[in-house]
Amino acid sequence: MKLLIYSHYFAPSIGGVESIVLSLASGLCAQQRNGFPDFEVILATETAAGSFQDGSLPFRIIRQPSGTQLRRLIQEADVVHVAGPAFQPIVYGILFRKPVVVEHHGFQVICPTGQLLQEPEKIPCEGHFMAGHHLVCLNCISQRSKIVSFRSWILTFFRRELCKHVAANITPTAWLGHLLQLPRSETIPHGLTISPSLIHPSTVPDVPLLVFVGRLVSTKGVHLLLEASAILRKQNRPFELCIVGDGPERTSLEDDVRRLQLNPQVRFEGRVTPLKMAEILKSAAMVVVPSLGGEVFGMVVAENMLRGIPVVSSDLGAFVEVLGDAGLTFRTGDPRDLSDQITHLLNDGALSDRIRKSARQRVLGLFTIDRMVKGHAEIYQRLASEKVHRGT
Predict the structure, then answer these.
(1) Structural domain boundaries in the chain
(2) 137: pLDDT confidence band, cut at 50, 70 and 90?
(3) What is the pLDDT of residues 36-84, one digit of tens each?
(4) What's residue 149's pLDDT?
(5) Percent of the chain at pLDDT above 70?
(6) ∠ at Cα 296 (292, 297), nearest 5°?
């Protein structure tokens, strides 16, 4: 089967979409029947190669294709997979009567910013676009120019309408599928590569180490974690907080650390190597994921569950679904509740031990690369077969 995967962003760009697309394409290339590959995968992307070695991958990559190239690739494909609701490949796929599969990595069909976060207040959005509260949406994105704001808002309608006409809409959580309310929707959780480096015993120091891993942007809620840390400090709770990652909010967060008098407890590591990351996490009492919005699955949650590190996350629907009963959640945006959940976990060693075991087992049972690849392959094969039976 000839499969075209279109992903606007791809390696060497770094991000969740890029890593999932890479894992999916590589996994599909490894699928074989009677010694022959099931899929001939071609990946089209708008990302330039830079120094990345495309030849190291088991599939062909077409970078920054022209409109003519993209049309030809779609015409030649049996199935078209689009990572995110990108207009051009979806339109061409529908026009050429190809089975188009859209995998949703964000909220672009129900939110003009794609984050499901009320930007001015930095609070989770209650779903104003779907409720028809469009003035609220326009005010939310009014920090941009009026033309850009209006364009973002109107394009959300077009994306949504296009996705109603594709062969399948895939979401990584059932929660996201419920929010998007699109026809022919199926849930396939993201998968993790089960590497021995991700599964290791932890060595928890005498002073508990809390760890945050992620980009330092407003949606990740790091300022909330600092407020909770200030509460812990006032309670004379011994702890250290390690913030791993970088981003545009680092300077303001460092200012918050000084304002809250947290300098002795908090350190910023910036971006680190995988070896350094493993060293930090080996000593972690827990990983805290205080996101305010923008999350459709939670790779940081799942990765640290696999490591056997207890996770405390905000109660966003995606996190709740991934964690199950193998972690703790707090009310999104509530630093007091976050500090209470951290204290609860630190005080209850038996709970921490149970979470370490059950979290790892949950990931091994539900969130593997093999399971993700198999789920996608079954959809592609079904759609291709239906197309043949229709004679189109």
Answers:
(1) 2-191+369-390, 196-366
(2) confident
(3) 678 999 999 999 999 999 999 999 999 999 999 999 999 999 999 999 9
(4) 80
(5) 95
(6) 105
CATH topology of domain 2-191+369-390: Rossmann fold (3.40.50)
Distance CA 239, CA 138 (A): 42
- C-alpha angle 286-289-293 in degrees, rounded to nearest 5: 170
- Comparing 2-191+369-390 with 196-366, is the CATH topology the same? yes
Regarding pTM above 0.70, the answer is: yes
| The CATH classification of domain 196-366, taken from the options 3.40.640.10, 3.30.360.10, 3.10.20.340, 3.40.50.2000 | 3.40.50.2000
Lowest mean pLDDT among 96-100, 103-107, 198-202, 249-253: 198-202
β-sheet with 286-289: strand ranges across: 266-270, 240-244, 209-213, 286-289, 311-314, 328-330
